[in-house]
Amino acid sequence: MRIYLLIVSCLVAFVVARAPPPFVEPLMDYHETVGIPLATRIKEAEDAIMMGADNVVNDVRIVGGAVAPVNAHPYLAGLLITFVNSPGTSACGSSLISANRLVTAGHCWYHSLQASQFVVVLGSQYLFYGGTRIATSTVFVHPQYSPSALVNDIAVIYLPTNVYFSPSIRPVSLPSSNQLWDSFTGAWAVAAGYGKTNDQQVGVSVSSIVSHVNLQVITVQQCQAVFGSWATSGNICTNGAGGVGICGGDSGGPLVINRNGQNILVGISSFVANAGCELGYPSAFTRVTSFYNFITQHM
Question: In this structure, is residue 76 part of a structural domain?
Fold first, then answer.
């Protein structure tokens, strides 16, 4: 009997050890649940900073990351978003890829709420103050974008005028032709954005400035083990071990790899686990190489 129980116990332990991770759904209804509340908090934080308030919470924005040095990510642009027939302002990130083009997530333009205008904020650590600010309503979302499944989650933003390059405003490179088939698995990348810093953040933060974090790229299969069919070959995912990654409000922002001193855009922040940002789940980005033709058609 003891031998039998030992065998059964070993089998149970083996099954538990081999059991797949629990399925996790991405965060949905971005603008209502994340973007609009986040923009409100950032505005309050920046107003307090500009007025010299001394009671602002000291925090950073990307989970597990740090405040980015000035001009560390001159290609990162903030988006202030207004909507068709709906009040409120939402927030996203984007990446400058030429003097008059940027890329962002499709769900920043439409995800239960339809955007009417982006105000693109370049060359500033803040969303509501400083920098170069250009309004545009010319946004091309991928024709097969699905807001319910978050597939083909990419859009190209057209600016009505060219921006002047400077140390704080400069485009990021797209992958070269010989990198289009690179999975980048195992590579270290940097994500930057304006998102909230933790799952409990409700107050204002002194670092309503840009934050960034180093993340390691994992395989699509590792991502699918957590997100199931939500993760596809059109995604590039990063390891969340240690509670690091993107969080609500980082949507549309860049995932960049440095190769031989050149910053290369490999991902666009797409989704995180609905369960929370700090639980060690992967972060999912739109894979730029999968949409290279779509992007270059709009250059």
Answer: yes
Query: For residue 61, is it within any domain?
Result: yes
Two structure tokens written together for 6: 């030992």
Q: What values do phi and psi take at 271, rounded to 5?
A: -150, 160
Indicate which CATH number applies to the domain containing 139: 2.40.10.120
For residue 273, tell me if it sits in a domain.
yes
pLDDT tens-digit readout, 35-51 = 998 899 888 888 888 88
Could you tell me if 203 and 58 are in contact, meaning their C-beta atoms sit under 8 angstroms apart?
A: no
The answer as to whether 15 is a domain residue is no
Is 250 in contact with 268 (CB distance < 8 Å)? no
- Report residue 27's pLDDT band, with 50, 70 and 90 as the boundaries: low
Nearest of 210, 212, 209, 214 to residue 257 by alpha carbon: 214
Residue 69 domain boundaries: 30-297
Which residues are annotated as catalytic? 107, 153, 251
How many distinct structural domains can be found in the chain? 1
For residue 189, the cross-strand partners are 215
Q: 237, 187 in Cβ contact below 8 A? A: no
Comparing C-alpha atoms, which of 193, 164, 168, 163 is closest to residue 72?
168
What confidence tier does 5 reach under pLDDT thresholds 50, 70, 90? very low
